[in-house]
Structures are given as C-alpha cells and as structure tokens.
Amino acid sequence: MAGRPRSHIIIFLAPAVLVYTAVMIWPLFNTLRLSLYVSEAGGRHFAGLANFRTLFGDPRWSASFWNALGNNVWFFIIHMIVQNPIGIALAAILSHPRLRFSAFYRSAIFIPTILSFVIVGFAWKLILSPIWGIAPGMLDAVGLKSLFAPWLGKEEYALTTLALISVWQFVGIPMMLIYAALLSIPEEVLEAGEIDGLTGWAAFWKIKLPLILPSIGIISILTFVGNFNAFDLIYAAQGALAGPNFSTDILGTFLYRTFFGFQLQLGDPHMGSAIATAMFVIILTGVCIYLWGIQTRMRRYQF
Amino acid sequence: MTKTRLAALLLTSSLLGGAASAEDVTLTIESWRNDDLTIWQDKIIPAFEAANPGIKVVFAPTAPAEYNAALNSKLDAGTAGDLITCRPFDASLALYEKGQLADLSGLASMANFSSVAKSAWQTDDGAATFCVPMASVIHGFIYNKDAFDALGIAVPTTEAEFFAALDKIKEDGTYIPMAMGTNDQWEAATMGYNNIGPNYWKGEEGRLALIKGEQKLTDEAWVAPYRQLAKWGAYLGDGYEAQTYPDSQNLFTLGRAAVYPAGSWEISGFNAQAGFKMGAFPPPVANASDECYISDHTDIALGMNAKSAHPDEAKVFLDWVGSAEFAALYANALPGFFSLNSSPVAMEDPLAQEFVSWRDKCHSTIRSTYQILSRGTPNLETETWNASVNTIKGTETPEDAGKRLQEGLASWYAPQQ
User: Fold this and answer.
1) What's the CATH number where A121 sits?
2) ipTM of the prediction greater than 0.90, yes or no
3) How high is the mean pLDDT of chain A?
4) CA of B129 to nearest chain A CA: how many angstroms apart?
C-alpha cells in the first residue's frame, strides 16, 4: 500500500525534475567542480582551491574582483533607491480609482521591460551620444547645454548612467507586482480605516504599505538576484571591457572576459568558473539572509 | 562531425536555394570579417567555384568582437566550419596546440610566402605553419584633402608639422581636427599607440628587444608614444569620451573631421562613403631626417579545422588562397588588405597605393603587443588599450602608464623579470 501513492508522485515529478536537473542543477555543480581545476600543458588537473587563492590573493585579480563587486553593489543600490520607490509610487498612482487611461500608462511603462537588452543599450547609447544624440539637443533647447556630458564615457558617471537606464527598462516589474498587491487589499480594511479617520496618505502609510511589504521584499530579492547576475546591458552598451577604465565592470562582465577570453586574452574556463562560484556564493548568501532574516520576521509581523 | 555537415548543408540550402547538387562538397568559412560578406559571395567564392566544380564554399562570418569566443566554443563543441580565419599569433597558435587547426606546412602554395609573412601563424620554433597568410594592414593617417587644401595645410611629415596642422584646423573651427573616440578603447591603442609608436621604438629593433627583455616599457622609447597621445585629447571632438568607432568613421566620412588615425582596412568603406578627396600620410617622425617606421601588421590568414569532414577539398581551397590569382583578387576587392604573397600585386586604388608605397621608404614592423607578450595575465594588449585611453583623457600620466604596464608584464613574463 505504501508504495503505490509514491510511485505516481515520482512519475509526475520526473519530467520537471529531469529537465531542471539537466539544464540547471547539473551545469551548476559542474561549474563549481570546474573551478577546482587548472589547465596546464596537456590537459587539466585538480588543483583544489588554487583558483580562489589567485582570485583573492593575487593583487591584480583581487583588485579586478573587488572593483567588479563594488560596482555591482552600487548598481544594486541605485536600483533599490530609484527603481523600487518609483515602482511603488507608480503603482500607488495607477491604483487610484479616479485615474483615467490607467491601462495605457500601465502598458507604456511596462513595455521597456519586454525589450531586448541589445535594443535598450543601443537606443540609449544613441540618445546620449554627444555627436548624434537627442539628449544634448534637448538640454540645449531649455538652455541647460552646459549640464550635458558624455556620461557613458566618463569614469565617474558611466555606471550610474547605466544603472538608471536599467531602472528605466525594469521599473515596470515592481510597478506591476505592487499594483497587483494593492488591488488585493480588501476594501473592508480600507473602509474600517476610513471610519477610524485614516484617509489619503495616512491610509497609504498605515494600511497599504504594511500590507504590501511582503511584495516589496520579493521585489528586493528579485532585484538583488537580477543585479548580481547582470551582464547584458553593460555588454551591449560598453562592450566586454566595461569601459571607461573598468568603471562599469560588474561581476558578469568580469566573468565573461575571464571565461571566454577577450581579444588577445585567451579564455580560462577554470578561473571563470571560480568567479562564477564566487557570484553564486554572494547571491546565495543574499537570498539566505532575506529568507531567514527578513521573510520569517515579515510573516510574524503580518499576523 | 555530422552536426557540422548538417549545419553546412542547412546553410547552403538556405543560401543557395538548394542549387548545390547532392554530390557537391560544401566548405564553410568561419570569419570575423562580416563587412566582407558581399565581396566573398560575389567575387571570391564564384571565382573559386568556377575553377573547382564540385566544391561549394559558404562564407559564414561572426561579429568581430565575438569571433574568438564564438570560434573557440564552436571548435570545442565540434560545430565549427571547415575553414577557419586565423587571428595572428597566440589566438591561432593555441588552437593549433589544442589540435584544432591542422598543420599546413606541406601545402604547395606555402612556398609563395616569406618567413616574415608566415611568422604570425607558426609555432615559436617555426617548424609548423598552420594558416595560409592572406593579408596585412598598414597604419597611418587618412586626411580630408579638400579640408587641407581649403585651409592651406601641407601634408605633415614631422611631429611639429603634425601638431601645427592640428592647431590650424582647430583654430579655423570648420572641422574637428581628429576623428577618434575612446569609448571602444581599441582604437586608442591600435590606431594610436601602435600607429605612432614604431617611430620611437624603431620598429622591429625595439619590438624584439622588448620580447628578449633588453628593453622595458618604462624606457623612453615606449613611454614617448603615450606622451604624444596625451596631446591628442585636445584635438578630438566634443564628447570623444563617449564616441564609438562607428561614430568616428561617420564623422570623418561625413566631412566633419579633417584627420583620421587609420588602419588601411578602412579604405574600401571610406571610398564608398566619403564625398571628398582623401589622402594618407605615415606617422610623422620627430625630425625631418629621421628614418620612418610603419606598422605593417600581419592580420589575417586562413587555416583548416583539423576535424573537417572534407580535408582534401579544404586543402584545394587553401592552396588556391595561397596563389597569386587569389592575391590579386583579394587585394583589389578589398583595398587596404595588402597581400602577403611574394608575387607583386597590381592595385588600382590610389589610397591603397599610397599606403603600400610606405613599405619602400619606411621600415615595416608589426604591433608590439601581439607576439608572445600577450600570453599571460594581465594581458598586455588589453592593458595597452586601457593605458592609451587613460593617457589621452589625462587620467594617467605617460610615466605611470608605462610603469603599470611594465609591472604587469614582469609579473608573468620571465625575460622581463
């Protein structure tokens, strides 16, 4: 008797488990394994943690790694302080019952999200181009030409500019998630608040915001994972060398250059895997902190 | 192997509309020269196919920036084409050592190339040659002749004249003095540092001394080019920091810039785009009586995938690539890619003739970073891009750049330690 119910569970789970194992789990563990080898003349051999010692011990490798990690953190911070508050604000505005054309705004804001990185990178590069771009012209029209700088070419602005481009592209996602969360707040709760004298902004801060906090948590963790895995936009806009002077180099581009090689630099899959492993550990740590440190507390808070 | 064949078959059937009969062998060429697609399809391949019935050739290029990575992955996976366009030196040498490129030393047409021409595609001891040399590219400056005439500027031959000319263009204000950006980084090193540098390090003499460890990147000969680059920043267009390579090309061909630090591969594109007369001059020397040196870089060759399903047919094609017939066809179809074949090639394009004429009065060398010196980490070529950009922007002094590069090179290259 005990065997029968189990067998059908296994059969139903099998397709998903097999596919997921083949395309996700197996490559992931293989990457972790690859990082423990080095390639020498005549093949590769096991080298323990030698790649990690190089990555963190060699002054050049570690400088590149910490530079990339630092840039990644800044990229994430910009998303957290610009993208998510704007997303929440947009959702709050869109869920206002008296707003007209809200469906149109919703689509318009969401559309960039479905565009390819290559198109976004290329379009923004053209918009911001000091030679053909419309940005210098538009600033000139309002007499602010002096504010224009070749942002993507300046070490001090390039990363922030790219982060804001990414925010422009993805602001639709937090907006949609929060919008859905706001719609699911039962009317009775709001009415009860109204009877107690909570209206307008006070209702938002005291009732809606606490109720959408779990969604904000989910968005934060999605942003975190997405940002620390980011690569495409930087690659499309600045190339694999993540210029100027590596100021836009994030872990993804650093990994790409190391793994696949660049120009005369030959690829080193083992060192690349070591960087990938470091990225995996960073993301895993972040997600764990969220799951145990924040989400558990949030659930308690709700009840 | 069946995958390669299937891919090649699918490609041909889609490209040639199934024109190939079942017995034809199809060879696929991997290349980064996607700009040349039409020339291969319309001129080079038909000439070969007409003379060699039964062999079809498909030119399947990838974007230049992705070529090395894409090719390595395809070769590892066994899906690469039969013929592989070879980057010079270590990129191809590594493929040969991994057994992915076949040894072509025995190919009859190899006799048509000098040892210098073959050096970029040989093992360090010269025992095996694994690619048939196709062409070299020469560096220099292309200028807008109409602009120079209108402003009464003579073609500069010394550095003093060069900067005087740039000053005059800048003062006049009609043209941007020089069209180059630092966004893509490689131009600053390739068209900047390695263009003007050979005059300082005396071409092959300095390059070989650096490889032997007799000179250092902190020596005056290697720092001085950065010092000249540092002066360039003032003559580049507004916002050059975000100006890309295509931006620079367009600025020049639209007639908005007067001088373009160039590689000869630009010639055919510029001929098609520019509506004004163009001329070219070699990198100016310090004093009028100095000997001149030019970067005449062995750039492109063709090798064979060691796992090709049709090695015999591929060798027929490669033998033809080494012939004088191909040399003439290629050099004239793509002015600016100068044949490495020992038999002289008559070229019709005046700009290409100008470039190639420098071979007679100047000493030729290749880019300093390409042979052996970019084998390690940090990679000297990539570091040179970065240093050239930094010095142009003024964020790093020439001396600091030289010191940083020397430290990087010495960290892994024994002769420099």
Assistant:
1) 1.10.3720.10
2) no
3) 90
4) 19
